[in-house]
Amino acid sequence: MRTNQNNLIIKLVTGLILMLSASLATAGPLTDLDGKSASIDDYSGNGKWLVVMFWASDCHICNKEAHQYVDMQERHKDGNISVLGISTDGLTNKAAAADFVKEHKLNFPNLIGSLEDVAGMYYDLTGNHWIGTPTFFIYNPEGKLRIADAGAIPAKLIEEFIAENSIAKAE
Q1: From first to last of its 171 residues, what are the pLDDT tens digits of the chain?
Q2: What is the sign, positive or negative, of the torsion defined by CA atoms of 67, 49, 136, 169?
Q3: CATH domain 32-170 topology
Q4: Per-domain residue ranges for the chain?
Q5: Eight-state DSSP code of residue 37
Q6: Pairing between strand 49-55 and 81-87?
Q7: Is 118:54 a contact under the CB 8 Å cutoff?
Q8: Which of 9, 78, 114, 167 is the most exposed place for a label (fewest CB within 10 A)?
Q9: Sign (positive/negative) of CA torsion 154, 78, 125, 159?
């Protein structure tokens, strides 16, 4: 009798683990604010430079500087630069992230993930440990990560880097 109970428990636990593993494999660490699975790859490598701004709704610097990236997106909407935001607020703080997008009138797509998932993704892509927000990635038009940097970076410096590297490539 005890063996049958143990076997049943093992089967139930194994089934739950398999179901959880399958759902985690398809969910991915990032979603858009509507809950649809998404990734940086969905936005990079499309012939434009991609500036990825990692932010948190309670990050003082992110709140202070978000307008720079709204302005950059507007300046380059028909050009060779696009911006993608990634909130580290996680789905439990999705309302705060949505409020940040609305308050700052973010005119570029924004994804959301938990801090743990974003930190893991950051490590996987850079080999370095996550420091905090704001953090920036810059991808070239072919989708290769060129810069990963933590801390505030003025949008003008990013635009200068892109201009210099676009000219160098054209020559």
Answers
A1: 555 554 444 444 344 333 333 333 333 589 999 999 999 999 999 999 999 999 999 999 999 999 999 999 999 999 999 999 999 999 999 999 999 999 999 999 999 999 999 999 999 999 999 999 999 999 999 999 999 999 999 999 999 999 999 975 554
A2: negative
A3: Glutaredoxin (3.40.30)
A4: 2-28, 32-170
A5: B
A6: parallel
A7: yes
A8: 78
A9: negative
